[in-house]
Automatic annotation (TrEMBL):
GO terms for molecular function: ATP binding. Residues 1-224 form the ABC transporter domain. Keywords: ATP-binding, Nucleotide-binding, Translocase, Transport. PROSITE patterns: ABC_TRANSPORTER_1 (PS00211), ABC_TRANSPORTER_2 (PS50893). PANTHER family: HEMIN IMPORT ATP-BINDING PROTEIN HMUV (PTHR42794:SF1). SUPFAM superfamilies: P-loop containing nucleoside triphosphate hydrolases (SSF52540). Pfam families: ABC_tran. This is ABC transporter ATP-binding protein. Part of the ABC transporter complex HmuTUV involved in hemin import. Responsible for energy coupling to the transport system.
Length: 233
């Protein structure tokens, strides 16, 4: 079964509308959404997550969905460990409290991202990048068949960004479909496919989409060096 099937899907919110989109994503596939500020990446992710109703068209999504919201959206008076472990509690409802297995999974996810030392720290007193890593750890423990990550590496230093990219690769290797919305073109380049949200969305292999010409058309300015070939232009 596909992780996402979108047919003539129009996503939007308020007065904003994305162009009609056809997309199929198989389990284990990795897709990057790129596009300028306001292009509709978060709108599309939230539509995939079921938080926004499609304006029109057909959308079928595998469950469960694990969603990493964009940086800065989450506040909570919990420790980093509890905040991470709540990713598992959400899956089975909030009726029962977290158990040892949940806390152990949280510790393993924090360790995977190089922030095990933050486990006992109050989430609300972490730096923005540290909070982001905790929320990514929470996403890792959610056991999603479809993992949606909105700007996962924004606010991260290069070493932590590399760990996150590797952790997302691991999720895909486990058979989960992964969609990242990102301005980080090196992260986009390591996905299997890239969907560029332009007035007419274009989708393909990173080598076909992350080209100087496509990026210049997408962002309205030349980008150098080329993110896939590394050459200045
Ligand atoms: N809550 C909202 N209500 C109405 N319109 C919104 C809302 N949030 C965003 N929009 C509009 O929807 C459009 C797409 O926004 P969206 O956040 O999906 O873009 P994005 O590609 O994720 O942008 P960015 O890269 O800046 O995060 C924008 O024109 C934005 O102004």
């Amino acid at each position: 079964m596909s992780a996402i099937v979108a047919e003539r899907l129009v996503a939007g919110r308020g007065g904003f509308r994305l162009p009609s989109l056809d997309l199929t994503l198989m389990p284990g596939a990795r897709l990057a959404l790129i596009g300028p500020n306001g292009a509709g990446k978060s709108t599309l992710l939230n539509t995939f997550a079921g938080l926004l109703k499609p304006v029109s068209g057909r959308l079928s999504v595998a469950a469960p969905v694990a969603l990493l919201p964009p940086p800065g959206e989450v506040e909570a008076p919990f420790t980093a460990r509890r905040m991470t472990a709540l990713g598992r509690a959400a899956r089975r409802g909030f009726a029962s409290d977290l158990d040892r297995a949940d806390l152990a999974a949280a510790d393993a996810a924090l360790d995977r991202l190089g922030v095990a030392h933050l486990a006992e720290r109050p989430f609300d007193r972490l730096s923005s990048g540290q909070r982001q890593l905790v929320l990514i750890a929470r996403t890792l423990v959610q056991d999603g068949a479809l993992v949606l990550a909105d700007e996962p590496t924004a606010t991260l230093d290069p070493a932590h960004a590399a760990r996150v990219a590797g952790a997302l690769d691991d999720l895909a290797a486990e058979g989960r479909a992964v969609v990242v919305a990102t301005h980080d073109l090196s992260l986009a380049a390591r996905q299997d496919r890239v969907l560029a949200l332009t007035p007419a969305p274009v989708e393909g292999a990173p080598s076909g989409i992350l080209t100087p010409a496509t990026l210049q058309a997408l962002y309205g300015a030349p980008l150098s060096p080329c993110p896939t070939c590394g050459r200045p232009h």
